[in-house]
Amino acid sequence: MRFASIILTLGLFTSAQATTLGNILKHSGIVIQECAIPRTAALTFDDGPNDYQIASHTWTHPDLTTLTDAQINEEMKKTDEAIEAILGVRVAYMRPPYGAVNANVTAVAKARGQDVVIWNLDSQDWNVTPAESEAIYNTTVATNPSTVLALNHETYNTTATEVLPYAIKLLQSRGYKLVTVAECMGSYPYQWAHLPARNLSSYKCT
Protein backbone atom coordinates (compact mmCIF):
# COMPACT_ATOMS: atom_id res chain seq x y z
CA MET A 1 0.00 0.00 0.00
CA ARG A 2 1.23 3.45 -0.84
CA PHE A 3 -0.72 6.46 0.36
CA ALA A 4 0.32 9.36 -1.80
CA SER A 5 -0.79 12.82 -0.80
CA ILE A 6 -0.06 16.38 -1.70
CA ILE A 7 -0.10 19.71 -0.01
CA LEU A 8 -2.22 22.20 -1.88
CA THR A 9 -1.72 24.74 0.89
CA LEU A 10 1.17 25.98 2.98
CA GLY A 11 -0.81 25.05 6.09
CA LEU A 12 -4.06 23.40 7.04
CA PHE A 13 -6.70 25.94 6.04
CA THR A 14 -9.98 25.34 7.84
CA SER A 15 -13.17 27.26 7.26
CA ALA A 16 -16.29 27.72 9.36
CA GLN A 17 -18.18 28.24 6.13
CA ALA A 18 -17.05 24.86 4.84
CA THR A 19 -18.36 23.27 7.99
CA THR A 20 -21.83 24.69 7.54
CA LEU A 21 -22.31 24.70 3.77
CA GLY A 22 -21.84 20.95 3.46
CA ASN A 23 -22.45 19.31 0.11
CA ILE A 24 -23.33 22.61 -1.56
CA LEU A 25 -19.62 23.06 -2.20
CA LYS A 26 -19.25 20.22 -4.68
CA HIS A 27 -16.97 21.08 -7.59
CA SER A 28 -17.50 20.22 -11.22
CA GLY A 29 -14.42 18.34 -12.42
CA ILE A 30 -12.86 21.28 -14.23
CA VAL A 31 -9.11 21.23 -14.93
CA ILE A 32 -7.38 24.14 -13.20
CA GLN A 33 -4.09 25.26 -14.75
CA GLU A 34 -3.97 28.78 -13.38
CA CYS A 35 -5.53 30.82 -10.63
CA ALA A 36 -8.75 32.78 -11.11
CA ILE A 37 -7.74 35.73 -8.93
CA PRO A 38 -5.17 38.03 -10.63
CA ARG A 39 -1.76 38.57 -9.02
CA THR A 40 -2.01 35.50 -6.82
CA ALA A 41 0.52 32.69 -6.55
CA ALA A 42 -0.17 29.23 -5.14
CA LEU A 43 2.72 26.92 -4.33
CA THR A 44 1.61 23.30 -4.50
CA PHE A 45 3.39 20.10 -3.52
CA ASP A 46 3.13 16.56 -4.80
CA ASP A 47 3.87 13.06 -3.86
CA GLY A 48 4.65 11.55 -0.50
CA PRO A 49 3.88 9.50 1.37
CA ASN A 50 5.24 11.99 3.83
CA ASP A 51 4.26 13.63 7.10
CA TYR A 52 1.64 15.88 5.49
CA GLN A 53 -1.70 15.13 3.77
CA ILE A 54 -4.22 17.84 2.88
CA ALA A 55 -5.54 17.00 -0.59
CA SER A 56 -5.79 14.05 -2.92
CA HIS A 57 -3.02 12.72 -5.19
CA THR A 58 -4.50 9.20 -5.45
CA TRP A 59 -3.76 6.10 -3.42
CA THR A 60 -1.03 4.29 -5.40
CA HIS A 61 0.14 7.05 -7.79
CA PRO A 62 -0.87 5.51 -11.13
CA ASP A 63 -1.36 7.21 -14.47
CA LEU A 64 -5.11 7.62 -14.18
CA THR A 65 -5.57 7.86 -17.94
CA THR A 66 -4.65 4.17 -18.20
CA LEU A 67 -7.37 3.05 -15.76
CA THR A 68 -11.08 2.32 -16.01
CA ASP A 69 -13.59 4.68 -14.44
CA ALA A 70 -14.06 2.23 -11.58
CA GLN A 71 -10.32 2.06 -10.95
CA ILE A 72 -9.98 5.85 -11.09
CA ASN A 73 -12.80 6.20 -8.59
CA GLU A 74 -11.19 3.66 -6.25
CA GLU A 75 -7.88 5.56 -6.31
CA MET A 76 -9.64 8.78 -5.34
CA LYS A 77 -12.07 7.16 -2.91
CA LYS A 78 -9.42 5.47 -0.75
CA THR A 79 -7.47 8.71 -0.41
CA ASP A 80 -10.56 10.81 0.32
CA GLU A 81 -11.72 8.39 3.00
CA ALA A 82 -8.32 8.37 4.71
CA ILE A 83 -8.10 12.17 4.76
CA GLU A 84 -11.65 12.45 6.05
CA ALA A 85 -11.01 9.96 8.84
CA ILE A 86 -7.79 11.65 9.93
CA LEU A 87 -8.64 15.34 9.40
CA GLY A 88 -12.42 15.41 9.26
CA VAL A 89 -12.59 17.09 5.85
CA ARG A 90 -13.65 16.03 2.35
CA VAL A 91 -11.29 17.77 -0.07
CA ALA A 92 -12.60 19.73 -3.03
CA TYR A 93 -9.50 19.37 -5.20
CA MET A 94 -7.36 16.53 -6.48
CA ARG A 95 -4.20 16.28 -8.56
CA PRO A 96 -3.64 13.39 -10.96
CA PRO A 97 -0.17 11.83 -10.82
CA TYR A 98 2.11 13.10 -13.61
CA GLY A 99 -0.57 15.66 -14.44
CA ALA A 100 -2.17 12.97 -16.60
CA VAL A 101 -5.81 13.80 -17.21
CA ASN A 102 -8.47 12.88 -19.74
CA ALA A 103 -12.25 12.94 -19.99
CA ASN A 104 -12.60 9.86 -17.78
CA VAL A 105 -10.54 11.45 -15.01
CA THR A 106 -12.52 14.69 -15.06
CA ALA A 107 -15.83 12.80 -15.16
CA VAL A 108 -14.92 10.79 -12.06
CA ALA A 109 -13.63 13.91 -10.31
CA LYS A 110 -16.90 15.69 -11.10
CA ALA A 111 -18.92 12.76 -9.74
CA ARG A 112 -16.84 12.95 -6.55
CA GLY A 113 -17.40 16.71 -6.27
CA GLN A 114 -13.81 17.70 -7.00
CA ASP A 115 -11.86 19.84 -9.43
CA VAL A 116 -8.55 18.74 -10.96
CA VAL A 117 -5.50 20.90 -10.25
CA ILE A 118 -2.59 20.97 -12.68
CA TRP A 119 -0.06 23.86 -12.91
CA ASN A 120 1.39 26.59 -15.10
CA LEU A 121 4.88 26.46 -13.57
CA ASP A 122 6.75 23.18 -13.13
CA SER A 123 9.79 23.71 -10.93
CA GLN A 124 11.23 20.37 -12.08
CA ASP A 125 12.66 20.03 -8.56
CA TRP A 126 12.58 16.23 -8.86
CA ASN A 127 14.80 16.34 -11.95
CA VAL A 128 17.15 19.33 -11.72
CA THR A 129 19.35 21.15 -9.21
CA PRO A 130 17.91 23.77 -6.85
CA ALA A 131 19.65 26.48 -8.87
CA GLU A 132 17.96 25.23 -12.03
CA SER A 133 14.59 25.22 -10.29
CA GLU A 134 15.18 28.79 -9.20
CA ALA A 135 16.03 29.68 -12.81
CA ILE A 136 12.68 28.22 -13.90
CA TYR A 137 10.92 30.50 -11.42
CA ASN A 138 12.94 33.43 -12.76
CA THR A 139 12.05 32.66 -16.35
CA THR A 140 8.36 32.28 -15.64
CA VAL A 141 8.03 35.35 -13.44
CA ALA A 142 9.93 37.42 -16.03
CA THR A 143 6.99 36.92 -18.40
CA ASN A 144 4.75 38.62 -15.81
CA PRO A 145 1.95 36.04 -15.79
CA SER A 146 -1.34 37.11 -14.27
CA THR A 147 -1.13 34.22 -11.79
CA VAL A 148 1.29 31.48 -10.80
CA LEU A 149 0.26 27.93 -9.94
CA ALA A 150 3.51 26.13 -9.22
CA LEU A 151 4.32 22.43 -8.96
CA ASN A 152 6.90 21.36 -6.37
CA HIS A 153 7.57 18.17 -4.42
CA GLU A 154 7.75 18.02 -0.63
CA THR A 155 9.79 14.81 -0.77
CA TYR A 156 12.98 16.73 -1.65
CA ASN A 157 14.66 18.53 1.23
CA THR A 158 16.32 21.07 -1.06
CA THR A 159 12.89 22.18 -2.26
CA ALA A 160 11.98 23.24 1.27
CA THR A 161 15.36 24.63 2.27
CA GLU A 162 16.52 26.28 -0.95
CA VAL A 163 13.96 26.54 -3.73
CA LEU A 164 10.94 27.68 -1.73
CA PRO A 165 12.62 30.52 0.19
CA TYR A 166 13.92 31.80 -3.13
CA ALA A 167 10.56 31.41 -4.90
CA ILE A 168 8.61 33.06 -2.09
CA LYS A 169 10.93 36.08 -2.00
CA LEU A 170 10.85 36.37 -5.79
CA LEU A 171 7.08 36.16 -6.09
CA GLN A 172 6.45 38.62 -3.29
CA SER A 173 8.97 41.07 -4.75
CA ARG A 174 7.01 41.01 -8.03
CA GLY A 175 3.75 41.80 -6.27
CA TYR A 176 2.15 38.36 -6.11
CA LYS A 177 0.04 37.43 -3.10
CA LEU A 178 0.84 33.94 -1.82
CA VAL A 179 -2.37 31.99 -1.31
CA THR A 180 -3.81 28.50 -1.19
CA VAL A 181 -5.29 26.97 -4.33
CA ALA A 182 -8.77 27.45 -2.93
CA GLU A 183 -8.06 31.11 -2.24
CA CYS A 184 -6.55 31.67 -5.67
CA MET A 185 -9.75 30.22 -7.16
CA GLY A 186 -12.01 32.27 -4.90
CA SER A 187 -13.43 29.07 -3.46
CA TYR A 188 -13.20 26.70 -0.49
CA PRO A 189 -10.70 23.86 0.08
CA TYR A 190 -13.27 21.37 1.33
CA GLN A 191 -16.67 20.06 0.33
CA TRP A 192 -17.51 19.66 3.99
CA ALA A 193 -15.83 19.46 7.38
CA HIS A 194 -16.60 17.67 10.63
CA LEU A 195 -14.76 16.22 13.59
CA PRO A 196 -12.10 13.61 12.73
CA ALA A 197 -12.73 9.96 13.54
CA ARG A 198 -12.72 9.43 17.31
CA ASN A 199 -10.68 6.26 17.23
CA LEU A 200 -8.10 6.32 14.47
CA SER A 201 -6.57 3.12 15.80
CA SER A 202 -9.58 1.35 14.33
CA TYR A 203 -9.00 2.91 10.90
CA LYS A 204 -7.09 0.67 8.52
CA CYS A 205 -5.40 1.79 5.31
CA THR A 206 -6.09 -0.98 2.78
Strand order of the largest sheet: 8-9-3-10
Number of strands: 11
Structural class by secondary-structure content: alpha/beta
CATH superfamily: Glycoside hydrolase/deacetylase
Instruction: Using the 3D structure, state the CATH architecture.
Output: Alpha-Beta Barrel
Multimeric state:
single chain
- Percent of residues in helices comes to 25-40%
CATH third-tier fold name: TIM Barrel
Q: How would you describe the shape?
A: globular
Helix-strand string: EHEEEHEEHEEHEHEHE
| Rg, Cα atoms, Å | 17 Å
CA-to-CA gap between the ends?
A: 7 Å
Low-confidence stretches: 1-24
The biggest beta sheet, please? 4 strands, parallel
Instruction: Estimate the mean pLDDT confidence.
Output: 85
> Number of domains in the coordinates?
1
Q: Look at the structure and give the CATH class.
A: Alpha Beta
Q: Count helical runs.
A: 6
Q: Strand portion, in percent?
A: 15-25%
Protein name: Carbohydrate esterase family 4 protein
Organism: Serendipita vermifera MAFF 305830
Subcellular location: Cell membrane
InterPro entries: Glyco_hydro/deAcase_b/a-brl, NODB_dom
Describe the structure.
The structure is a single chain. It is built from six helices and eleven strands. The chain has 206 residues and is α/β, with parallel strands linked by helices. It has a single domain, classed as Glycoside hydrolase/deacetylase (TIM Barrel, Alpha-Beta Barrel). A four-stranded parallel beta sheet has the order 8-9-3-10, with helices on one face. Strands 2-7-6 form a three-stranded parallel beta sheet, covered by helices on one side. Helix 2 crosses helix 3 and helix 4 packs parallel to helix 5 (157-173). The longest helix is centred in the middle third of the chain and has 19 residues, at 69-87. The model is unreliable at 1-24 (pLDDT under 50).
